[in-house]
Design brief:
The chain has helices at residues 13-23, 36-43, 54-63, 73-78, 100-112, 129-133, 156-161, 173-197, 213-241, 248-256, 277-290, 296-320, 346-356, 369-373, 386-390, 403-406, 410-416, 431-436; strands spanning 5-9, 28-32, 67-70, 82-85, 118-121, 143-146, 165-170, 207-211, 327-331, 360-364, 381-382, 395-398, 421-424, 440-442. It is α/β, with parallel strands linked by helices and 447 residues long. An eight-stranded mixed beta sheet has the order 3-2-1-4-5-6-7-8, sandwiched between helices. Bound molecules: nicotinamide-adenine-dinucleotide.
């Protein structure tokens, strides 16, 4: 049984998804956290966050005893051959990665871990971290590996089941192989688990990549940094397009048709947010500095990204004048569609900026009102529906591409408003249709 038992330390977005899937792929999984609230949600057969397909997986595994929520390191770790660390790695104010949770979890695990076990770092950490954390397991006959996570919130279950690559790095080749083998079990069961989750299986043949510790760590941050770079690149071209008659959506469509460039992530808009890109970009800049490398290109991407919400709000102000006393609505507070995660969300930033200028702001998100609440200033009025948010609004900002916003009837939207300015912060509407509905329209990089 030991060989088929797993401990997952940290039941956040990554830990819950990992636990729920491994527990449905034939493993017994202890899901450990220090947060009673998050564990209580698991005991009730659900996740603390919104993610399509995750709840049936949790419920099935909790009911059949394969998923065991616990706060006890002793119970979870001493029984497990594989110990995954999925704790948070937030950024510090100076941009560097806060690795306190990573070290605390490793130290706690080291007290109970059995010889022959494998410690698997899933959290995103700066290159070189694993060499330091692995010292914690010195003299314990425990192999240390890095297995960075690539799931995307909003498609986390499908991404984990139908992965495009699994990367495992470590000095102990046999341990690396055993971790890769875990994912072969996931792959074998992927269609059945997708069915249980109520999701449509995908046709993807994932690649298994064995490498060393430093490369595995650097692969993860490189991937996120490059995606962030594409977004900031699109936004810098959008700022130029705004001064001309060019439409950045058409520009990126045509530029991205070249397979050497690729269309994905060349989307201009209010910039990236969430619990990963902003901190991973800043973490990479900071870790490069610690090795004496100045990553100017990433500094530029980060700086442009921070400006985008202000850029959009000031574009709207050029049209309307002062926002003081104006009624504004912000639709979309999650950092992207498909998730309730509102960490470092541009929609929240836009709502706060508007409230700061004296506008009266209604804000709404189909899933993220709860998680956005603590980051919104008190003067932003959270409401329960899009209809309520836009009623009598003079200006509407659409900040997340939720299907319910994309499919909104623009004629009805105009009728509900007392003003007429629609600010499309994600470039999701056809400007001509918006104009035909009697709206004034502002996109990002499309005049
Ligand atoms: P999260 O903040 O949602 O979850 C982390 C969890 O760890 C929390 O529930 C916290 O209570 C728990 N924790 C902290 N210290 C602990 C300890 N000592 N013992 C036990 N539990 C502890 O974070 P997340 O979004 O799941 O991300 C986890 C890691 O995965 C991060 O490094 C992140 O960068 C990376 N990652 C996240 C995503 C994503 O989409 N969220 C994707 C890929 C990689």
């Amino acid at each position: 049984m030991f060989e088929k038992t797993i401990a997952v330390i940290g039941t956040g977005y990554v830990g819950v998804t990992t636990s729920a899937i491994l527990a449905n792929a034939g493993y017994k999984v202890y899901a450990l956290d220090i947060s009673e609230d998050r564990l209580q949600a698991l005991r009730e057969g659900r996740s603390f966050f919104y993610e399509e397909g995750i709840n049936p997986l949790i419920k099935t595994a909790v009911d059949n005893g394969n998923l065991i929520p616990t706060t006890s390191y002793e119970e979870a770790v001493s029984n497990s051959k594989f110990v995954f660390s999925c704790v948070g790695t937030p950024d510090r104010p100076d941009g560097s990665s806060n690795l306190d949770y990573v070290f605390a979890a490793a130290e706690e695990c080291a007290k109970y871990i059995k010889p022959g076990s494998i410690y698997i770092q899933k959290s995103t950490v700066p290159v070189g971290t694993g060499r330091k954390v692995s010292e914690t397991f010195k003299d314990k006959s425990v192999a240390y590996t890095s297995n960075p996570e690539f799931l995307r919130e909003g498609t986390a279950v499908l991404d984990t089941l139908f992965f495009d690559r699994i990367v495992v790095g470590g000095a102990d080749k046999e341990a690396v192989k055993q971790v890769l083998d875990l994912y072969q079990e996931v792959e074998k069961n992927q269609k059945e688990i997708a069915k249980l989750a109520g999701l449509q299986p995908k046709e993807v043949k994932g690649e298994y990549i064995a490498t060393n510790l430093d490369s595995a760590e650097l692969i993860k941050v490189t991937s996120n940094a490059f995606l962030a770079l594409k977004i900031s690149f699109a936004n810098s071209i959008a700022q130029l397009a705004d001064k001309t008659d060019a439409d950045v959506v058409e520009v990126m469509h045509a530029a991205g048709a070249d397979p050497r460039i690729g269309r994905a992530f060349l989307n201009a808009g209010r910039g990236y947010g969430g619990g990963c890109f902003p901190k991973d970009v800043r973490g990479l800049i900071s870790s490069a500095e610690s090795f004496g490398v100045d990553l100017q290109i990433m500094k530029a991407a980060d700086s442009l990204n921070r400006q985008m919400p202000e850029y959009i709000v000031s574009k709207a102000a050029q049209k309307t004048g002062d926002f003081k006393g104006k009624r504004a609505a912000v639709l979309g507070l999650s950092f992207k569609a498909g998730t309730s995660d509102a960490r470092k969300s541009p929609g929240v930033k836009i709502a706060n900026l508007l409230a700061g200028t004296g506008a009266s702001v209604n804000a709404y998100d189909p899933e993220a009102n709860g998680e956005a609440k603590e980051d919104l200033t008190d003067s932003v009025n959270l409401v329960e529906s899009a209809e309520e948010a836009v009623k009598d609004a003079e200006i509407i900002f659409v900040a997340t591409d939720w299907p319910e916003f994309k499919e909104i009837n623009l004629n009805e939207l105009k009728s509900a408003m007392t003003g007429s300015l629609l600010v499309d912060c994600m470039n999701i509407y056809d400007p001509e249709k918006a104009l035909a509905a009697g709206l004034e329209f502002i996109g990002v990089g499309r005049n």
